[in-house]
Amino acid sequence: MGVAVLMILCAGCATTADDIRVDATPDAASGESYTTISVNEIAESLAGGGPIIAGLDLDSTTFYTDSVYYYGMTNIDGPDNTNIFGDNPEQNPEFVRAINNEFVGYYMPKNAAANVIRMHRERGDMVIFITKKHSSPEERISDYISVIFGIENPKVIFTNGTSKTPYINEENVSVYYGDSDGDITDSLSADNCTPYRFMRNKMTLQYNNLNYSLGQYGESVVENSDY
Predict the structure, then answer these.
(1) Pairing state between β 63-64 and 108-109
(2) DSSP label at 59?
(3) pLDDT exceeds 80 at position 9
(4) Among 42, 53, 130, 217, which residue's CB has the most CB atoms within a 10 Å radius?
(5) Given this model, what pLDDT does residue 207 score?
(6) Share of the chain above pLDDT 70, in %
């Protein structure tokens, strides 16, 4: 069984230093403006400090994972063209297991995430991943991250749909990258973490524009982070 439809669908903290150059960019959806920042500018804001811990979200931030969710919700691979994962796939442990294991090869890495990860690793920072995905007894996301980004034994934390704030605090995450409003607010609720917003791809936004308000909380948006 494979993912037959490969479509890009839908799937903490203080603001940046005042002396970092930023651009005000209009949000086409809302008409409001938000502040953009480049990966180099983030690196400049961290210059002079020691190594930190940087956290990234997974879905729509580090990877495009929309195609596997689209398949899970719309497939007709069950008996009589029914959904093989039932009427509520996201609550089906078999779908959760597949998302975390055999479907991982369909995760498409985002260039912006690769650039952010490279920058932090060149600084000597530790990069970890905190996701609201649900866990399963086994997972291959860690192995995939290791192969794609060259991170040995990466730490992947599953919050099982709960707030990321306690995990950001527990891991002493200083900067966190995510695409959703929840990623930003969870980061802002943490003790000492700066949030950066990743943009969603235009195709993703056709199907998933919920919980997505660029710059609403004063966070900077990473340039070109929709790809």
Answers:
(1) antiparallel
(2) B
(3) no
(4) 130
(5) 77
(6) 86
